[in-house]
Amino acid sequence: MPRNAMARHIAETDLALFVSGDVSMWKYAAVCLHIARCEACRARVEVYRLGRQSLKLAAGEVPAGVNWDRLAAEMTANIRVGLAAGECVAPRRRKPASFAGWKPAAVATGLVAVLGAAWWLNLPSSDSESLARSFRNMARSLVSGGRPSTPFVQNQPVAQVSPDGVELKQNGVLMPIPQAAPMPASTASAPASASPAHDYLTVTVAVSAQTPNTKIDLAKDKDSSVTLVSYDSGDTRVTPRGSAYLVDFHPTLSLRNSSAKRVRSVALTIVAQAASPGGNASVSVPSLNVAPGDTFAIHINQTLLAPASGNPFVQVQLDGVLFEDLSFYGPDKLGLQHNMTAWELEARQDRQYFKTLLKASGPGWLQTEMLESLARQADLPQPSGQMTRARATNGDAGQDMQFAFLRLPDTPVELSGGLARVSSNEASAPHFAVRNISKRPVRHLEIGWILKDQDGREFLAASLPADLSLAPGQSSQVVGDASLRFSGHSAIQSMRGFISSAEFADGSYWIPSRKELDDPQLRRVIAPSPEEQRLSQIYNKKGLTALIEELKKF
Amino acid sequence: MQAVLRLSMSEAPGSTRFFDGVPQSSELESRFVSENMRRVFLLIYRIVGNVADAQDLTQEAFIKALQRQDQLKDLEKAAHWLSRIASNTAIDFLRRSGRVSFSDLEDLPEPLVSSREENPEQRVLRNEHRERLEAGLEVLTIRERTALLLRDVEDLPAEEVAARLNCSKATVRSHIANARVKLRRHFERRQA
Fold it and tell me: What is the ipTM of this complex?
C-alpha cells in the first residue's frame, strides 16, 4: 500500500463498527487491509474489541447498593400479585355499561366518578416521586358507575374525628382505637404517604381477613382546606386470594369544607399497594357546591388488591380540591387539576344555559330539555364487549389505521393527522399531528378518542391528556402509549379524534360551547356534562320546582 | 417538538396460562420469572439508568409476557421474546418520560450482597468494572446507550436494534459508533 494511503487512517467510527461487523463488505475489506499494516489502527480496533467484551461482562453486574435477593423477591411478589389481579379484579369490576372515558362522571348516575379503577401494567415504586409519577400515569378516563352516596351504616366501626381527638364507635358504642398497625418494614411496598409526615388529609385502614376494618389510623392536615368528620367502613370486605387480599372497599367519608371558599370538586387517591397493579385507584367528585363549614359525603366503591404479607392497609388521601374561584389545593398526584377546572367551567356554562332557557322560554322548555338529557344519557352507546386499557408495546402487531377528525368550530388546536396501530380488536400507540390555530400559546390538551366497533356502535373510548408547549401557529406531534382492547370478537372499524379541552399558557381554558357539543356526531357518543347529569337527576327525583330552586343557588 | 400523551393505564384481562400446549402451572411461571429476572432487570436498568424505574419496568415486562404467552410460538425463543418485551418496555418508558435519573441509586441503603464466592480482589475488580461501565454509560445519550446495549450486550443484529428503536439501520450504526467512540474516550480520560 502506498505511503499516502497508509497515512489516511480509517475513520474512527468505521473502526468502532468494524469490531461488530456493522460495516459494508467493501468497508470491511478496506479495514482489514489497512489494519494489517497500520499498527495504530490495529491497536484501536483491539481497544474497541476489548471494550465490547468488557461492556458485556460489566453489564451483568447488579448496581451498587442493590440487595439483589431482596429486590428479586419483591419483584417476584409484585408480579404474582399483578397476575392475580388480572384474574380476580378485572372480571369483577368490568361492566360494559360502566365504560366511558372523556367525562368521568358522565356515566355515573350518582356523582362519584371513579377514575383509574386499577393500574394494570403501571407499577410504581415506593418513593414519593415514583408514586406521584405513577399517579400521573394512571388511568384518568376509566369510569365505573359510582353509586349514590349512602347513609352511614352504624353496625360497622366508625372513626370520628373531633377537636378533642379521634373516636371509634361501633353500633353507637365507643370503642378503644387500636394502635395503628406499623407500616410494612419493606418501604418498597408502602405508599409514600405512609411516612409519618402527612401533608394532606389521609385515612389509613388496616385490613386483614380475620378482623377486617377494625384498625383505623386517622391522620389529618390541620391546615387542610377539607377535613375529615367521620369514616364509615360500610360493607367493606376482605377476602384472601392467593398471596394477596382482595379488598372490596366501600367506605363513606364525611368531609368538611374548612376553607373560606365553596368547594366545587374533590379528588381522592386510594392506595392498597403502591407497587402493584390492581392496588391503586382514585375517586373524583365533580359538581359539588359545598359552602364553607358544610359537610359532604364521598362514597368509595372500589375493588383493590393488597399484599397478604406484612401489615396490609388501604390508604385514602386527599389529592385535590377545586374551589369556586378555580383555585386548587392538594398534591394533584393524579394530574386532575385540568379536568376538574374544565368540569367546573362546563358546569357554569350549563347552568347559565338552563337559567337563560328558563328565563326566556319558561319552565316548560326547561322540563323538555331535562327529559331530552335523560333520554340521551339512557341512549348512549356502549361497546359490545368489555374494553380494557394497557400500555402499548413495540411488539404489538397490527396495521396503522388513520384517525378521522371532528373539528369543533372554535377549537384553538387543530388535529391535522393521526394514526394508531390497530389489530382486530385492539388499538394502540396513537399519534397525532396538532397545530395551534389560536393566538395564544397552549400548554395542555385533552384529545377525545372515539372508536367504532364492528356493529357500527361508536363510543368515546378514552381521553388522552397531553402536556406540551405550543406557540401560536406552531405544529407538533403528540404520541401516546395507550392500548385499548375489546374483549371477545368485537373488532375496531374506525376511529375519530377531537380536541375536547385545552389550557393556555396563561392558565385560561378553552372548552367546547354547548352549541359545539350539539354536533350530532358528538351528541351520539358523548354524555352530557357531570353538572347536566346532576341537574337532570334532581329533576328526575325531585321535580321541576326543585330543579329551579337548585339553579337559583348559583 | 414532541409531546407525550399521558394516558391512562388500567386493566387488561389477565391470563396466567403458560405457553400453549402446556398445562397451566404457577411453578413453570415462577421458574420462568426466576430464571430470567436478573437478565431482564439488568437489561432494563442499563437502558433506563435507575433502579426504581428498572424495578417497575421489569415487573411490567414479566406481567406483559405472562399475559401474552399465547403469542409465543416457539419455546426455544422464549428468552429472546422476553428480551424483546423488556427492551420495548424500557424504550417505551424512555419515549414517554424523555428523561433519566440516576439519583435513586444513592438512596438504597443496603449494601451489595453477593451469593457467589469470590475473593476480595475479584470483588474489587468486579466493582471497578461496574462503576466504570455506569460512569461510561452516563456520557452517552439515551439512544446511543440503548442501541449499544442491544447490540453489544443483547447481541441483537443492527436491523433488529433499528426495528426496536423505530429508526433506520444507518441511524443505529451511527448511534453505536458514536457510543463506542465516546466510551473509549471516556475510559482513556479516566486512565489518564
Answer: 0.72
